[in-house]
Specification:
The chain is 36% helix and 32% strand. The protein is of the alpha+beta class. The strands form 3 sheets. A 4-stranded mixed β-sheet has the order 4-9-8-6. β8 (125-134) and β9 form a beta hairpin. It is elongated, with a radius of gyration of 24 Å. The termini are far apart.
């Protein structure tokens, strides 16, 4: 019996995949638990439509990420902080500060967890941070910290 999976089933397949299973397994386990539906024309076409829409969405997200990468690679963000002895900052520049500044300056919404700072930014100077925009798309953003 052919069924279309509604969600990932370990050892069987991924969501929206059409698989061949025994009739007993389908009727006694997959169908009652709503893990799958019988693969008739309507359900197969619906699954294909969902798969194509997911592919289109991923493609547009990747294109947007590449465009944002080009913007951030060329860009530079400047932070102004109070400075103590030896050009050390009071506090530090955090990933949240960087994400907020990216949103303010470039109008690009970035999650603070996607920003990687190699060393804590606690001194004046120029730093480079990595911003993960999409799977496989990482931008290198320059950050300049100057004193007040």
């Amino acid at each position: 019996m052919k069924v279309v999976l509604n969600q990932d089933v370990k050892g069987l397949g991924k969501k929206l995949q059409i698989v061949e299973v025994s009739e007993g397994y389908a009727r006694n386990f997959l169908l009652p638990k709503k893990l799958a539906v019988i693969a008739d024309n309507k359900n197969i076409n619906e699954a294909k439509g969902k798969i194509s829409s997911q592919k289109f969405k991923k493609k547009t997200e990747l294109e947007a990420a590449k465009a944002n990468k080009a913007i951030l690679d060329k860009g530079c963000i400047e932070f102004r902080h109070k400075v103590g002895e030896g050009s050390r900052l009071y506090g530090s520049v955090t990933e949240k500060d960087i994400a907020d500044k990216i949103k303010e300056v470039y109008k690009i919404d970035v999650n603070k967890k996607k920003i990687t700072v190699n060393d804590p930014i606690k001194n004046l100077g120029t730093y480079t941070v990595n911003v993960k925009l999409h799977e496989g798309v990482v931008a290198n953003l320059k950050i300049t910290v100057v004193g007040l």
